[in-house]
Amino acid sequence: xxxxxxxxxxxxxxxxxxxxxxxxxxNKRIAKVLKEINHSNYELVYVNDGSTDNSFSIIKSFVEEDxxxxxxxxxxxxxxxxxxxxxxxxxxxxxxxxxxxxxxxPPELLPQMVQKWKAxxxxxxxxxxxxxxxxxxxxxxxxxxxxxLNALSDFPIPSQFPDFRLIDRKYADVVKxxxxxxxxxxxxxxxxxxxxxxIMDFEAPPRFAGKSKYSTRKLLSLAVNSIISFSIKPLRxxxxxxxxxxxxxxxxxxxxxxxxxxxxxxxxxxxxxxIIMVIFIGSVxxxxxxxxxxxxxxxxxEVKNRPLYMAELFLNEASAKIQKK
Length: 325
Prior knowledge:
Elements: E1 10-16, H1 20-36, E2 42-48, H2 55-65, E3 69-74, H3 80-90, E4 95-100, H4 110-118, E5 123-131, H5 136-152, E6 165-168, H6 169-176, H7 185-192, E7 197-204, H8 216-230, H9 233-262, H10 271-303, E8 311-315, H11 317-324
Parallel strand pairs: 1-2, 1-4, 2-3, 5-7
Antiparallel strand pairs: 3-8, 4-6, 5-6
Helix pairs in contact: 1-2, 5-8, 9-10
């Protein structure tokens, strides 16, 4: 399906959460670049991830004006990863482009992405060379996030690769069939192991309006979910900690015994040693139980087999009539 002859359909999925001040500019710029390359066969799928501002009303007005625009309205805020999943479920194009609504994913790159796909590339990734909207502390958090993630993950997930990417339909369908609740799209793409891909470098401009929705707490939660979803290394680390603690206890016991037998002035009360060992062993046990508990918690959520999200689809009336036929 890569680079098909004739006019292929391109789906652009935009995740939206409280981006009312960016939407008009984003919609205008996307329409402009697609008009410039004369690519009329496309659809724009906005996913409203439970926004509490006027994002829903603004996108709904886009739908009423243009039959190529869809609105997938999630009943509540399910999170960025689930919002992209919902967009993928409703996208019907031969390739799907994912992007955010904050205009840090420049729409002006869309023609190059489509061109590379038509030339036969299955996946087009983008890499941020710089982010003008992130502070030094933010960059440090991101670096630490990916260092920890890759140290504990079985699949390498490179840093500076945002969710701004193009995926060919045949691989999008594979991702579409992955139904785990705790997901990370970057990890799923890495798991596919597709070799036929290219990387486009870009500099992320400052946000057009508003503030980033990714807090430190959300970043930490994403890190934990990503590590547990793609690796069992933390369980091995827990085993290693237990082994090290056991050896440390044996060595400490030998040292105390030798000291007791060879020292004439040594007075062994055992109080301080007992307290230290109890705290040490108790801490190790809590760490190990915590790691096991995280995995059990994920299993508990997965076996419930609940829907990933609840949503309603809004279409232009003309578009809806065509689909009914």
